[in-house]
Each structure stands twice: as C-alpha cells, then as structure tokens.
Specification:
By secondary structure, the protein is of the alpha/beta class. The chain is built from eleven helices and nine strands. It starts with a helix and ends with a strand.
C-alpha cells in the first residue's frame, strides 16, 4: 500500500514537472515570437523614417536649385514643369550599391497659382470641373462662409456635431489645404488622388479630369486669379468665356514652336497686353483672361516621392520665393 502511494506521488511530481516545463516552453516560444515581431516592426518603422527624411531631402534639393538660380522663378512656365530624380542627378552615391537598388527619390515643382484659390475664386467656376460635384461645392461654401445657413446639399454644425468624433464647421477661410479632408463628402483619397501611390505617373497631371485630385484643383495662396502660364487645360476650361478652341490656342502658344512644355522655346505671357499678341483670341476672351488670370507667381508646390525597401513616403510642400530665396510655408504627408 505504501509502495503504491509512493508510486502515485512520483507520477504526480512527474506530471507537475511536465506541466511546468510545457508552460515555460510556451512562455519562451511566445516571448521569442513577440521579439521577432517587435524586431520586424522596428525594422519597418526604421525604413519608413528613412523614406520620410529621404523625401525631405528631395524638397531641400529643389530649394537649393532655386536658391542657386538653376531654376529661375521668373520663367514660371519652365520651373513649373521641372521634374527630376536623385539617380539621374547622381545624388545617391554614398550608400552601398545594394542599398541604392532599394532607394528611390523623385521630385517636381508645380505652380500653386495654377490652381483655384479656394477662398477667393468664384465657386461658379468650379462647376466645370467634373470631380467637384454640386454637393461638394455646397459643403465647401458652407465651411468657409461666416454664416450658419446650410446650402442645399451642404453641411453646417448640425452635421459635424453628429459625427462620431464631433467638431465645429469652421465658417472661416481655409488656411491649410488639408482642411478639405474635414469637409463633408471629401475623403483623404479624393483629396490626394494619384499621390496616394508611388508610380511613374505621380509627377504628372491626371489625364482624366473626372479623377483629378483636389490638390490639383485648389490652393490657399494667391488672390483668386490663376496663372495663365501654368494653368492646366482643366483649370482653363473652368474659366468663363473660354471654349476648347481658345484653350488650345493658349496651350499651343505657351509650348512654343516645338509643341513641348518646359523647353527653351516656351513662350511666356507677361501681361494683359501680351494676350493681344496671341492670334485667335477674341476681344471678349482677352478681357475675361485679363480679369481672371495673373501672369507670375511667388508660390510653388514641391512633390517629393521617396521609397526605401518598399516603404514609401510622398510629401507635398509649398514654398514662397522672394528674390530666388525659397521659404517653406507648409508641408504635409500624402503617403
């Protein structure tokens, strides 16, 4: 009987030891797994940080080109067509070759005044832009006007206060373009459009006006007039009194004899008087262009797109240029 009890005790101790060993093994395996996950997350976060600062480098590169007058603001059409990358400029030379294969950096300059000032331009002009629906126009107008009256299909405090994370309708001019993302019917993806991904076409304007990003349409800089030397056909078509023939005349005139934008033979419309030199425009069209357009710019937008080991970052930065001295006035991350 005593021997049987001793045997049971030994069996119980053995089972207890096995349970403890199994538990310790499980804890160790879980700890190792968590450690691996933490290492992977730390590595991924490290690559994202590298991509961010690489994109910052792209912005600084454009600023340096402007400061050295390799890109001149006076030739606004030329600077607004500038697109380049770090590889073609031989800027990525320090890292080892295997790192270079996993690093990409592209950057470009666009004229802020090629877009409609969302605070000062006439909302009636937006009606001809397919991606700006009537509902969106109403919501934007309600956001920036000073009253609390709701436009048809618009939104005021009664809408924004019912959201899961409520906030007030601003009822004041927009100071940063990304405020658009707080407005009803505008999502971050429609705001940034093509800049939500990194590809070969990211540095070009959209081919389809119906999918144009709001960053391609609006700005918060300028007095409400668009720069006739840099405005896209989409923006020009929204101006009153211009038909497709007049738009093509302007675009062809700007590109010069070689019919290519951003080249040495581009023509620059310097003033209202210069419009009279463009054959094919009517007197009424010249008068309207003089009213709705400007001919120079002091604000430019830099898009800088970086990738480090498949971790991507796209920054949009606005600079103000005075006497070829660029100063950053805003920067936001699109990706």
């Amino acid at each position: 009987m005593v021997a049987h009890i001793e045997t049971n005790k030994k069996a119980f101790v053995l089972i207890l030891v096995l349970i403890v060993v199994s538990a310790m093994t499980t804890i160790v395996i879980a700890a190792v797994y968590r450690t691996k996950i933490a290492i992977r997350l730390a590595h991924a976060n490290s690559q994202r940080i590298k991509a961010y600062y690489l994109a910052i480098g792209g912005i600084e590169r454009v600023k340096a080109l402007i400061a050295s007058q390799e890109l001149t603001v006076e030739w606004v059409g030329h600077i607004s067509n500038f697109t380049s990358d770090a590889v073609s400029e031989d800027l990525l030379t320090e890292p080892p070759a295997d790192d270079l294969e996993n690093m990409l950096l592209s950057y470009c300059v666009r004229d802020e005044l090629a877009c409609f000032n969302i605070n000062n331009s006439d909302p009636a002009s937006w009606e001809n832009i397919p991606s700006v629906s009537r509902d969106i126009r109403s919501c934007i107008e309600d956001w920036i006007d000073k009253d609390s009256d709701t436009n048809p299909s618009g939104a005021e405090n009664d809408y924004y206060q019912r959201l899961d994370s409520p906030y007030n309708c601003k009822n004041n001019p927009i100071t940063e373009l990304k405020e658009l993302c707080y407005i009803k019917n505008i999502t971050f993806d429609t705001y940034r459009g093509q800049y939500a991904s990194l590809n070969d076409k990211i540095l070009s304007l959209p081919e389809n006006d119906s999918t144009a990003a709001f960053t391609d349409i609006f700005t918060v800089y300028g007095d409400g007039r668009v720069n006739i030397n840099t405005a896209s056909s989409m923006i020009l078509s929204a101006l009153p009194g211009l038909d497709s023939q007049a738009i093509n005349i302007i675009l062809n005139y700007r590109m010069g004899p070689d019919a290519t934008a951003g080249t040495d033979d581009d023509k620059y419309i310097k003033s209202s008087e210069s419009l009279l030199e463009i054959e094919g425009l009517t007197e009424l069209q010249v008068e309207l262009l003089s009213q709705y357009c400007c001919f120079s710019s002091g604000f430019f937008r830099i898009y800088s797109c970086a990738e480090v080991q498949k971790k991507k970052c796209v920054l949009m930065s606005t600079i103000e240029v005075t006497q070829n001295s660029p100063k950053i006035v805003s920067t936001e991350r699109l990706l």
